[in-house]
Amino acid sequence: MVFRYISRKIVSAQNRNKVNHDAILENGGLAISKNLEENLDFIKSAIGESQDLKIHEFAFGEHNQFSGALVYIDGLVNTIQITESILKPIVSNRKKYKSLEELTISEIRRSILCSGSVTESNLFSQILDGCLSGSTVMLLDGFSKGLIINTEMWEKRDVTEPQTETVIRGPREGFTENLRTNTTLLRRRIKSPKLRMDHMTIGHKTATNVCIAYIEGVARPEIIELLRTRLDSIDVDAVLDSGYIEEYIEESPFSIFSTVGYSEKPDVIASKILEGRIAIISDGSPFVLTVPMLFIESFQTAEDYYVRAFYASITRLMRIFCFFIAVFVVPIFIALSTYHQELIPTTLLFTVATAREGTPFPALFEALVLVISFEILREAGLRLPRAVGQAMSIVGALIVGDAAVSAGLVGAPMVIVVAITAVAGFIIPSQTDSISMLRIIMMILAAFLGGFGIAIGFLGMLVQLATMTSFGVPYFGAVMFSRDQQDSFIRMPLWIMEKRPKNIVYKDKQRKEVIIPPVKSDENVKQKGQDNFDE
Amino acid sequence: MNKYNRRIYLIIILIINFILTGCWDNNELDTISIVTGLGIDAAENDDEIDLTLQVSKIKGTTGYEKGAVGQGSSFFVMEATDSGILSGIDKLEKQIPRSIFLHHNQVIIFGKEQAKKGIKKYMDVFIREHQMRMETWVLLSDSTAKDILTSTMEQEENSAIGLSKMIYSESRDYESLSMRLMDLTSRMMEETTSPVIPIVTVKNKNGNSEAEISGLAILKEDKYIGELDLEKVRGYSWIMGNCREISFNINIEDGYSDMSISNIKLKNKPKLGADGPFISIDFKGDVAIREIQGFEGMKTDEIFAILQKACVEQLEKEILDCFNYSKDLNADIYGFGTEFYRKHPKDFEKLKEYWDEIYPELDMELEINLEITDTGKVLNSLYMEEQSDENR
């Protein structure tokens, strides 16, 4: 019964028709009237008696015969700019305009105002939108058009080092919550004229600005088109973070693996864009999404490309190894100690058995208690203020762990095994969530079916990974034999990687023309160096 | 029924599968008793055996109190008399609260009395039963298997594990002093070969009885007929060629020296001569001098010449001693018969039936080439004369 109910819910949610939200803006769709007072009254009634709505009325012209008003939201605008480039020029303009016929809106826009971005509009909807997103609206008595002047300026966070992806070597800038800053950071890195930044607005209430960034000719047009349709079909009232968008555009919503990549670092996003991916920047979020995402991207970090290839390759292999440790070591330990004791070396068996002796719970329960309490500790450490978090981790990890062992509730080897997997899981930040879920699934499989269960779970995982796609690109792409291997398990030196990833890129495949190894110093230079040394 | 409905049903059915079947074959570590040694002795009744199991006693350590471990013996011994091994184990299982776990069995020990009666019929279970491993050491007790399994060891808590380590470390130098179940079965399958098994004797030391390796037992077919003492074991090992470094000593008029032979290169050629089959053995090796006593007033060159000669003689003596002993017993412990079969399969078909008559008359052509290559840290001893420069 319950399942039928749930499935019906899901289906009905899918079939539900798109609600026509234009009705909400029906009032705003009205045209502006010529009467200033009427217009102002309408704006007041539309926005309400909000304290931050400012209406500044003024008179201008030779004999102050014309009257007008500036409408803006306090806090979103640059008041100095309003005074200097809107009010001052228009009020102090002594040019003789005898009547309204001589003075036209475009005349004002072209010859009086000293502002860069000015648009004309005769619709209340556009005027209200402009007003609410930080522009100043100028309405003049006797005109059925208003001017929307861009005067955006609000408090924003500086560009700081990102908290999530720290590097030892490499750029330290991170994205901020401001869309414009973020696009600037990308533009500064990719100065190609082919870098496209397409804007769109998502969310009926929040009207969040979203920007799609890609390089024309490198990104595949069909993926861009697919992304656009998916973004267009998002039917939601609020987008408060890029995570909202991620859930609407991902291809396998019921998979535990994420098919949309994210990063907080402009250099990472720039490199992904250069590989042919598309970035989705959402206003209000420092996390920029990239699609399509391959599984192997979880194991790549920014620093892989900033240190030399050998060490980068070693660390990448270690990360992949750690993925297996994090997922499989606890299940294997459970399977060995409950089903396959014959596989444990004799001496180790005695050690494990000694620890096992006298502990009251079965191995699965023991492991679950530890894994879940570890998840609790992790979550608590994240939510608490940083200073308290430290104290808590000491109490949680050291005191509780130690006491649990000496009280005989859990065996010491199990604590070690769980601790190792926990640490290993942190090496792959973007897969931490899927790892902790997989681990518990595998643990249960191992406890019920032993090594056979682990094999089934592993195969299931592989099947799932191999069937998934991200925007039509196979999720397991770079793991297969192709030239993408050069940047999957290991990273080849940068001068060898002359082509962009095979599955993602469109026409502009070559990063550079030919593979040229770094030039060896010729004899003259050597001789010169030797001479300097001799002196 | 739509797509999602079907998926949810599938998941539910999968979960129910797990829950309803439960943990099939689940054996928590605290529900098994780990057997470390298994002994088979002759029982009073001819059809039966006395089965002895050494089971390790796992002492729970609460927390970090490790002190509890290591005091007293950490194993106990169980006995049963039955006609089969597994049925004996089933009997024993009813005496203890846990199930008997044989996978980690380290040694299989046969008592001497049982070995005289024959061991072949009890080998079957070791090959057939899944829990038995083919790498297990097979030993023969000088007295009874129970004596060995009840003995203790100074350094090890568990004497069977200690014994297996002892044999392992010994087998690195003398491979002949070890016999795995796997090797024993293949030896027994060779029709003409008489397998040898290490003998373990129990000695009384400081009030404790401790086991030690004392030689090799010779089995004809599957019955005990005699044994090689440690000196003969060396003679046996030279010919088997499966030794890494064997030391021996020479006691001649001029002095005494201890040396070891390494880099052994052995050519073992069975030949069919006019007078019948014979074995030709070509032995090459590097001698390292480990200790020298005596030889006072002699020059190094002379000493080396003497030692080299003495070495060859000693080796020849040891090899022939062992070979003649085996001829006396009429037991082909070297597997020469199999060697003949490999080289001359057709001729051996005819010889096979008469091998018992041929072997005691078998001749050995022995050629030994030894070279002193290593003298340790010094060339001369304190009391040796300095070597003259011309000879250097």
From TrEMBL, chain A:
InterPro entries: Spore_Ger (IPR004995), UPF0353/GerABKA_families (IPR050768). Belongs to the GerABKA family. It comes from Paratissierella segnis. Signal peptide: none annotated. It comes from the Bacteria. It holds the Pfam family GerA. This is Spore germination protein. The chain crosses the membrane at residues 317-339, 407-428, 440-459. GO terms for biological process: spore germination. One of its GO terms (cellular component) is membrane. Keywords: Membrane, Transmembrane, Transmembrane helix. The keyword Cell membrane does not apply.
